[in-house]
Structure formats: C-alpha cells, structure tokens
C-alpha cells in the first residue's frame, strides 16, 4: 500500500509541483537565481560576521547544509543511479536549478515573517508565513505537523538506517549497538538546544563537506579524461538517447526529481526554519545565501558522488543493490578497501549533523503548535531517539516509502503557500534590488515601508539606520521599494 501511494504522489504530483512551480517562480522573478549568482559569494562573505546574542547568517547556512548534506548525497544519489541510470543525475540538476528559486522565496519569506520568542531568539518557517502572511493558522498547523512528522521522525529514521548499515558493511558493526550509540550521542546535543546544535554544525559541516569533496575530486581527477564522455552519457541518458539506458528515461526523471528533492530539500519548507533564526539586515539576503546552499548541495556534492560511481567501473546497467553499498564499492574499486571505511565515516558525520538539523525542525514546529511546553518537548526528544533506533534496524524500503509520502505532502502545502505569497516575495525582492541598484552594498529592510504586512516589529523595526550608498549614488526611494 505504501508503494502504491508513493508511486502516485512522488512519481506524478511531486514532479509537477517541484519542476512546475519552481519554473514559474524562476520566470516570474526574471531568473533570480542566475541574476544573483555572483552576488551569492559576496553575501556568503558577509555572512561570516557574527551578531551578539543571535545566530549569524553563516551559522544558519551551516545549519541548512547540515540538513541538505546528508544521506541523500551518498545513499540517495546511489539509489537514483541504480534505478534511473546516469540520466537521473541530469534531472537532479534540473530540480536544483528551479529549486534554487523556490528556496530563495521560501527562505526570504521565512525571514520576513519570523518572530522573536520569550528568550529573544528568532523563530520562523512555513507555519509562520502561512499564519501571518495568509492569515490561515489552521493551514500553518497542518504544515507544522507535516514538518514534525517528515523531519522529526521519518527522515531521522532514514538517516539512522543509512549510517548503521554503512558501518555494518564496512566494519561488521551490529546495527542494534550502533543505533543505540547514535541515539545516546544525539541526545547529549539535543539537550543544549539550537545554540549547541549550531556550534556542532559549525564544527562538523565544513570538515565533513571539504573532506568528502576532496576525496571524490581526487578520484575524478585520476580519471579526468573520461569525465567529458561521462557527462555526455548523463545528458543523452536523460532523454533516452543512450542505447544502454534507453529504457530508463521514465525512471531517470522520477528518480532524479525524487532523490534531488530529498538531497537539496528546495521547496519542502525545511530550510526556512533555520533561515529564520539568522540575524540579517534584509530578508532577501538570507534567501540569496540559501539558494547558494542548494547549488553547493546538488551541483557540487551530489555531482561528485554521481561521477565517483559512474567513473569507478563498478556500476553497470541493471546493477542490483542499495545506494550506500554502491558508493562504498565504487570508491573502493578506485582507491582500495579504505574507500569503504572513508564512505562510512563520511556518512556518519553527514547523518549526525543532518539528524541534529531534522530534530530542530521538528522542535521548532512543535513549539508553533503547542507553545513552550517543557513536558511535551521532553516527550518529543524521547520519541525522536526511539525512532532513530527504529530506523537503524528497520527495512530500507519501508523507511524510504514513508519518508517519500510525507515529503510530497509537505511540498504540496508549502509550494501552494509560496504561490499565494509570491507577490509579497516579489515586493521585498524589488526593495532589495532597488537598494543595490542605488549603490547600497548591504541593503537594510525598513518595515515601515510595508505597513500592510503582519510583521514582528521587534524582529524588523521601523526606520532602522539608513544604509550608506556608494559615492555618487542616492538611496533607493520609498516609492520604488513599495512597488
């Protein structure tokens, strides 16, 4: 039954939603992800600046990468190639390209409608922009529930399954004991809340990402002469033009979109939860940097995994096996048995930070539903740890099917909300673009220019310090910002 429901939702509904609405946002915004691509690097540099008492934009980026860069980048890519052939990689790229615009708008809106809690920390996400932007709290509650179920429970079970079975494949470790060990380590971090989670992400995310990219690039460089031909195979296979993979075009599209969304999460409504906690001068700045996060996740990390598999010589059409073992054996085929060990260690780091991120998403939305209830929060932490252990020993097909169904429902609610709030997103984008056109290097958001929006004036004060324009240029006018 799970497979039948999953085939319909993720095989048809998800593709239309992600690619269709992502393309709509891209065209209507005049290709915002391309127009601001070089600007992303400048915003990334500025994100390194810290804010007293608040999480910096860089910390929010590391948190979002903690979630985006997880089992999907290793196991997910392996499964996509196994079931969809090389062409699935192309459709992962397409999903990421249009997904960058979806992520841009959802994270910008997450920042715009964020709220300051009793502890002085920012909280936000789809539930908040649905309640305060669409004035539909009931729909925000549904979104919060779906996020809680999808990330707090389903995805955590999947991530735990990936790491315990990887360690079993590489070292022979019993999945029961590694599941218990993983739950204990995560429980120690959960207790510290968002600030401890952010500190752990700050430390582990750059290390795990750079180490993984370094090793996969080493393998790619060793066989660099084959890369152009393999890229050609990927493109031809995506349209059924390669005879060896001609029968996989349908699977290539479905698996490319499904696993692409699972890897980069663009449009699911997850990233806005962590994007909202950052202290930034303008909501759009966080939208820009989160679009950059999608680019890093798919075009850099997922592509490295795909080329590692396809260039290794281990993968052949009709390969049968799970994505984790495929990636491990592909690396081992090039560098020796230590490749399996490296993938297991890398996956362990990927999963650990990803679960921390998923836990926070669940907690944030649980607080939206029930408020600051300590007993409920402790119950949630306990249940998450139990489900992490469950995922460590459960069947992979069951875990993936459950996660795919809840992910598709989540995308449906979030993307419809983004569509309804698209005009608001375009207004703040114009405000940002007008200030940049006037020579202002760091645009500042003035909530007094948007009196019709239900904003938290503590998070976005009226008449903040005026931004300084470059010499010879005047600040953008109020009328232009309000268009």
TrEMBL record:
Region (Disordered): 462-483
Membrane topology annotation: Multi-pass membrane protein
Low complexity compositional bias, start-end: 466-483
Protein keywords: Cell inner membrane, Cell membrane, Membrane, Symport, Transmembrane, Transmembrane helix, Transport
Transmembrane segments: 12-31, 138-158, 170-191, 203-224, 244-262, 294-318, 338-360, 376-393, 399-422
Pfam family, one: Na_Ala_symp
Coiled coil regions in record: none
Subcellular location(s) per record: Cell inner membrane; Cell membrane
Family affiliation: Belongs to the alanine or glycine:cation symporter (AGCS) (TC 2.A.25) family.
Name of this chain's protein: Alanine:cation symporter family protein
Native organism: Pseudomonas tehranensis
Lineage of the species this protein comes from: Bacteria, Pseudomonadati, Pseudomonadota, Gammaproteobacteria, Pseudomonadales
């Amino acid at each position: 039954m799970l497979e039948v429901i999953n085939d319909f939702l993720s095989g048809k509904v998800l593709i239309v939603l992600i690619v269709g609405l992502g393309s709509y946002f891209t065209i209507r915004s005049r290709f915002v992800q391309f127009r601001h691509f070089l600007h992303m690097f400048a915003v990334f540099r500025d994100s390194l600046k810290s804010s007293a008492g608040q999480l910096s934009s860089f910390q929010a980026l590391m948190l979002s990468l903690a979630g985006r860069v997880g089992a999907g980048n290793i196991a997910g890519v392996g499964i996509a190639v196994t079931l969809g052939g090389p062409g699935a990689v192309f459709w992962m790229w397409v999903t990421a390209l249009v997904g960058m615009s979806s992520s841009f708008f959802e994270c910008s809106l997450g920042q715009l409608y964020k709220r300051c809690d009793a502890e002085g920390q920012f909280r936000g996400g789809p539930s908040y922009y649905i309640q305060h932007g669409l004035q539909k709290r009931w729909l925000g509650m549904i979104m919060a529930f779906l996020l809680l179920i999808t990330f707090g429970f389903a995805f955590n079970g999947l991530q735990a399954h990936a790491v315990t079975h990887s360690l079993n494949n590489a070292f022979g470790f019993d999945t029961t004991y590694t599941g218990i060990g993983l739950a204990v380590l995560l429980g120690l971090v959960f207790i510290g809340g968002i600030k401890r989670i952010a500190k752990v992400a700050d430390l582990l995310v750059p290390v795990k990402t750079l180490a993984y990219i370094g090793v996969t690039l080493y393998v790619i460089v060793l066989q660099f002469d084959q890369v152009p031909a393999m890229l050609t195979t990927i493109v031809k296979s995506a349209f059924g033009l390669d005879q060896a993979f001609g029968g996989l075009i349908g699977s290539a599209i479905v698996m490319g979109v499904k696993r692409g969304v699972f890897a980069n999460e663009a449009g699911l409504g997850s990233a806005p939860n962590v994007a909202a906690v950052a202290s930034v001068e303008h909501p759009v700045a966080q939208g820009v940097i989160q679009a950059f996060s999608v680019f890093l996740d798919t075009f850099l990390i997922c592509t490295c995994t795909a080329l590692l598999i396809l260039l290794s010589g281990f993968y052949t059409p009709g390969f049968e096996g799970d994505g984790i073992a495929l990636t491990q054996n592909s690396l081992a085929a090039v560098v020796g048995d230590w490749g399996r060990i490296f993938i297991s260690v890398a996956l362990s780091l990927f999963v650990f930070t990803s679960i921390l991120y998923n836990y926070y998403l669940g907690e944030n939305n649980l607080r939206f539903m029930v408020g600051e209830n300590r007993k409920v929060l402790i119950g949630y932490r306990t249940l998450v740890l139990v489900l992490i252990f469950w995922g460590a020993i459960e069947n992979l097909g069951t875990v993936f099917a459950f996660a795919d169904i809840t992910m598709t429902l989540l995308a449906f609610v979030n993307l419809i909300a983004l569509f309804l709030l698209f005009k608001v997103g375009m207004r703040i984008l114009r405000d940002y673009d007008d200030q940049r056109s006037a020579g202002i290097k760091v645009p500042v958001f003035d909530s007094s220019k948007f009196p019709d929006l239900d904003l938290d004036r503590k998070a976005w004060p009226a008449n903040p310090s005026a931004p300084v324009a470059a010499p010879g240029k005047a600040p953008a006018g109020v009328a232009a910002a309000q268009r």
